[in-house]
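[AMINO ACID CHAIN]
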Amino acid sequence: MSAGLPIALIQTRTPATAAAGLAHIEPLIRQAATEGAKLVLTPEGTNLLEQRRDRRAVAITDEDQDACVIGLRHLAAELGVWLLIGSAIVRSGHAGDDRAANRSLLIDPHGGIVARYDKLHVFDVDLPNGETYRESSTIRPGDAAAVADTPWGRLGLTVCYDVRFPHLFRQLAKAGASMIAVPAAFTVPTGEAHWETLLRARAIETGAFVLAPAQGGTHEDGRKTWGRSTVVSPWGEVIGKLDHDDPGVLHATLDLTAVARARAAVPALTHDRDFAAPR
């Protein structure tokens, strides 16, 4: 594992079709690579954001037929970068279930898919401002956590709402993750109240870098997302942040030796104890 990893987080305002999603994000990824990033991460819903069920049913396709996924695999190979597609909304592939998968894909510099992760926790909520979300009606949750090997260390995969489940992050860290991705499309009310606090807490608890590329702004389907893509160090410091919800590129350099220092200073990952559950 080497220090000084140049990364880039891509913040988007993804449209409602995969072809438009690719056209939207490609120039931002090219910019990131031109400016030196070796690992590029994109948000949740990189290929499309469409919450209207009838339109989503028309827009989604299988992973290997999605125009944005195909285009980004070719782009990673062309640019010679590692690329995390924070998630693509694609058919789940489960017979008898017409819900989609919210699937994170790690692409190597040859364009190959080296890891997949389907979002474990789906967001069903009635917000105080009157907004209602029922992600479970259109997204089939995954059933397995994922950690992937990279040239710089292990990368733990999560998506958005997963950030509220610290036990998942703890398991990723115990599986060797020195970096944990949190691609997201946070709502504005929850983003304003909780986004940075949750990201910093997960970094502190795991002693890992937390890399959180986000969607931002008002989308074609009417949803509004918070933006504020953020990079947090293993000590809980915000070392990079976009202070807006517009599309853009956030660069950071990760000193991966900081992971061992943080975990040595607070070795909580080694201090778990069995205990009786409360009654």
Residues 100 and 247 are 25 Å apart (CA to CA).
